[in-house]
Amino acid sequence: MLPLLEPHVTGCALEAARLTTGTRRLVLYEPGIGATTPPGFADRLAGLLAQGRREDVVTALCRDLLQMPAEHLALLISEPSWPGRVAAAHTVVREIRTHDGYRFDPERFAALRVPILLLADADGPADEAASTATLAARRRERVVVRLCSCRGGTPLSV
Questions:
Q1: What are the backbone angles phi and psi of residue 139, rounded to the nearest 5°?
Q2: Fewest 10 Å CB contacts: which of 32, 44, 70, 146?
Q3: DSSP characters for 1-45?
Q4: Residue 41: which domain range?
Q5: pTM for this one?
Q6: Residue 119 parent element (H or E)
């Protein structure tokens, strides 16, 4: 099974593959290159965190940014991993701000020869679809569009 990298780590994965020789291939799920969060979103989550509302931070991330359907969010909350997600809520704002500050420069990856499989949800956000198409066109990579959504945190094996 290959590791599946979601939007918030795509820039890291691409940069790491560019800097190392140990990466043989990448599988990227809706890369999110160029996609940013709504204005004020990180500040809103920072406010919730300052109030000690850690669970609300994670819930808002899933519901408002990831556009996770309510039934998927309820399932995620019921899973044994939920307390760990809540415990890590303090990292969410930093990661969002880092993601928003990342600027994809395709020229930096011109020499990258690692094959990339790009995954996209048929019902995913338009900005994610656009970034997936942009990366695919620049790299001439294959895109697999899944007809079912994985927004509920459902594991995916490739």
A1: -100, -5
A2: 70
A3: -PPPB-HHHHHHHHHHHHH-S----EEEES--TT--PPTTHHHHH
A4: 36-101
A5: 0.69
A6: strand 116-121
